[in-house]
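Morning run. Coffee first, then this:
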Amino acid sequence: MKTSEENQFASVKAQTLIESLPWLQNFHGKVVVVKFGGNAMVDQGLQRAFAQDMAYLRWVGIKPVVVHGGGPQISARLNELGIESEFLGGFRVTTAESIEVIRDVLRNDISSKLAEMIVDSGADAQVMSGEDGNLFRATKTTLDSENHPVDLGLVGEVTMVNPRIIFDSLEQGKVPVISTVAPDASGQLLNVNADLAASALAVALGAEKLMVLTDVPGLYSDWPNTDSLVSEITTNELEQLLPTLESGMIPKMQACLAAVRGGVPRAHVIDGRVPHSILLEIFTKSGFGSMVLPE
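And here it is:
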């Protein structure tokens, strides 16, 4: 016979499942784009929890699409090879020598490992990059400065998305796992910021939501004042706040801003250091992290 404590625990679990029902109804059959990054990429426990979240979403009828970067892993590999890493304005300066290393680490180390974890968690997964199926086309970019544009090397931004390969993968019941290198019009491979690529992809897919994992609880309007955590913010309010943010947070918030202005109903920055933060955001009344909404 079950104890009262066991019955109480079972009741809490049942209540949690019932609480998720409206969100299951809202998101069933919808595409959700998740930008995987930060500590969640280097902590094995968090990696496993993330993979379980993706498998869970797929099995309850939601269509997750994963986009990832790989800053720490790329830096470690470049360091092993004696290639110096340089960052300007939150972007990695990318040389002809380093772009091939970046491509290899992203696809063959990070994507493959994450896809394997998703498969182990019970859902099928497909590894791809911006090169596959003409998914992304990029244009070389520079960094704006007070005096003159700063050359970042082989760094680009996504200017065109052909989502057919993603739709095909989703139709086959798979979770796409996408790394962000992409060719320009001449075929030159460029290193593309994963936050901004995830945003462009979310718009092209008509996603219901964009979620960007970070290493902080969310957006702070007055960092480092931890009392300034923002739960909701409109696109106009965010645009005004952008110049005051730390360089590492700017691409993430630019991604959220561009996604919502491109038609994605809402975008979130979420603390990826918390296990199952994706499920907490989607399936709880209080939500998790900071949400960007249209005006």
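The chain is about 40% helix and 25% strand. Good start to the day.
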